[in-house]
Structures are given as C-alpha cells and as structure tokens.
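Onboarding guide, step 5: your first structure request.
Type a short instruction followed by the sequence, for example:

Predict the 3D structure of this protein.
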Amino acid sequence: MASAIAIPSKQPAEIYIGGAGDESSRLVFSYAEARRDAVRGKRQVHYLPHWKITAARQLAAGLSGAGHPLALIGHSWGADTVLRAAGASDAKVFIVGADPVAKPVSRITARDGRPASAALVLHVDAEPPAYDRSDYVKAAGYLTGGGVPRAFRFADTRIAAELNHWNFRGMMQTKGSDGQSAQDWLAAFPDRLSPASG
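The system replies with structure tokens like these:
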C-alpha cells in the first residue's frame, strides 16, 4: 500500500525597504517590526534601508529561490530599490510601492517597465490636502530622480491616499476603490496575486 507524504509549502516572505532617512525616522522599520510580531510563525518579515540594493537583491533571490512566495514593499526611494530587488527573483513576486520616488542614480531605470518577475504591482499614491516638509522632500526627489518609476505609473492597482509622504503606516492601511488596502492585499498574499483573482 502506497502512502503519500505531504510536503508543507514554504512560508511567505515580506521584504520592507525604507526610504531616505528611514534609519532615523524608523517609519518603515517600525512598521516591519510590528508586522514581524503580528505574523510570527506564519511568514518571514525582513527590513533593509533603500541604499542596500545588493543585499536586497541577494535576499530576494535567496528567498524566492528557496520557494518562499515573496512580497516586496518599499516607501519612497525604497520602492525604487524594490524594483531592483524584484529583478533578482526567478519566481513571481508581489510589489507594493508606497508613494514611490525614483532615485537620482536611476533616472534611466525610472523609465524601465514592469519587472519580469512581477505578478502584481500595487501603487499607493499619497495626495495630501496640505503639504508638509516630507512632501517638499518628495518633490525634490521627483525633480532629481525623474518622478515615479514607470512600473508604478502603470501599476495593476492604484490606491489614492490623502496623506503626507511620511505617513507610511497610513498608506498601508488606506482602502482603495475596491475596499482593499495594501495591508489587506498582503494578508491575502500569496493566494491573491492578481487583481482579477479577488
């Protein structure tokens, strides 16, 4: 009599990439830490600053290569790094850009299209009713870096958030026109990897 052995699937993994100055402000870092506590034992959560592009690529390649369904979430310049990291994955990945800004060194790559590995690209676009300092910093980044990377300009899903650029947590929690937030999309990941599957 033959018996079947069930092989458990690998835990999903989330990589959070902070924007400029996140090591001081800890906007994305603290969100990732809280997320790690909330999903402990169910999925892996990692954090890197935006300037660790090689480390982000290696981490993404290692996790996806080992069979972990992978979500890459970046804020501001961190979203630019997310696109670079996605290029290192052979498996399909879920990409979230929270108010993404192309880096000055990426003026050419800001025009690049969607990474081949992207199963879903979600763009959370902060549109504040009144500007604060963080929005002026973002505007300077737009001028030097070339604006929003093309992959996010043509995202599968866009969520408009009436928030200032610094409010990463708020962007992750803002509901889109379909009633789903980036947080909701992540909760349903990896089962839901395309806008049509929900």
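Each response can be followed by summary notes, for example: The first strand starts at residue 13 and ends at 18.
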